[in-house]
Amino acid sequence: MDLVKDFFNPDNIYFIELMTLTVTAITLLVLRAVKSKLHAQPQNKIWGASLFSLYLPAKSFLIFLTLWHALKLVNQFWVLKLGLSEMPVIPLLIAVHMSWFGFRVVNTLEFAFLDSSETGRLDQTAIIGVAKVCRLLLMVILAIVAFDLLGLDASGLIALGSVSGAALAFASKDLVSNWFGGIMLYMDKPFKVGDWICSPDREIEGTVEYIGWRISKIRTFDMRPLYVPNAMFNNIAVQNPSRMTHRRIKETIGVRYDDIKQVNVIVEDIKTYLKGSEHIAQDQTIIVNFNGFGSSSLNILVYCMTVTTSWVTFHEHKHTVLLAIADIVEQHGGEFAFPTQTLHVNAELESGPEPEIRK
């Protein structure tokens, strides 16, 4: 009994270690009891994500703290003289677990916001970009704190790497260029994940699946993955058909020269049909005019915009419009032209004497 009282005597050298172990054990039990409540927090709020992300880093920190103070207690009790008091273990544990906690908060918010982006409320590309920047900042802060706690001089490392710095910079110039290219993609947002893009300068066309720091992944229409370095987007023109407001129908309808008298009424009826069609955007330009004399046809220009931007639906609407135009041409007795040639034979040559054939 006296031994127990002696252990918990504030003047005893073991008192701090014993009290720390006791408080740590009690805190672990409390943390275990509130685990379900922490995991039930809403993950799309900062405070909810923080509480949700707290359990594992806090549990790990308390376990390591317990082991460390138990080791110090053993060191004091048996006088091992390990020099544990000179090691900045506790500050390092705090820095590592705080960084881990920060990473978990960022990841939790990222996943929650990405789920919300499926409903169109948030920009998926911006969410991924902000999360990557936050993780990068956490890594930089952890490295700075660790250098300071370990007593390392950053200037010494800079001097050590000065000889190879130029070679490293030259070797990594493409990596740095792609990294800055990724930053510009996140800032300018010429496209985002899920967009259909194409480039007239390069053979790049497909759906954006991923935008990374170094490369972007594009799924082509034949389902092959295409990996494009981000720096390339700084030097090429990129079209984003996903952001178009309408799709265009532009066709040249060719009728026979024999139908020259019907051209006027055909043009007017086509224009009337387009202006009354639910598939055609009435607030956009509609042009139907006789456009020129072809080699075998009288050409009528049909120009309009559809109300849909969906690739599949657009072709269904275009199908309907073109068949309706064919019906209008047929109703007025017209026919579509096809390449023809007319041969004129001189009558005198037909009635003249047969040429003399010499043997």
TrEMBL record:
Gene3D superfamilies, alphabetized: 1.10.287.1260, 2.30.30.60, 3.30.70.100
Gene Ontology MF terms in the entry: mechanosensitive monoatomic ion channel activity
Per the UniProt record, which residue ranges are transmembrane? Answer: 12-34, 46-70, 90-114, 126-146
Keywords on record: Cell membrane, Membrane, Transmembrane, Transmembrane helix
Q: Which residues constitute the signal peptide according to the record? A: none
SUPFAM superfamilies in UniProt: Mechanosensitive channel protein MscS (YggB), C-terminal domain (SSF82689), Mechanosensitive channel protein MscS (YggB), transmembrane region (SSF82861), Sm-like ribonucleoproteins (SSF50182)
Which GO cellular component terms are attached?
A: plasma membrane
Top-rank lineage group of the source organism? Bacteria
Task: Give the principal location in a single coarse category.
Answer: membrane
The record places domain Mechanosensitive ion channel transmembrane helices 2/3 at: 134-173
Q: Which residues form the Mechanosensitive ion channel MscS C-terminal domain?
A: 252-333
By sequence similarity, the record places it as follows: Belongs to the MscS (TC 1.A.23) family.
Q: What is this protein called?
A: Mechanosensitive ion channel
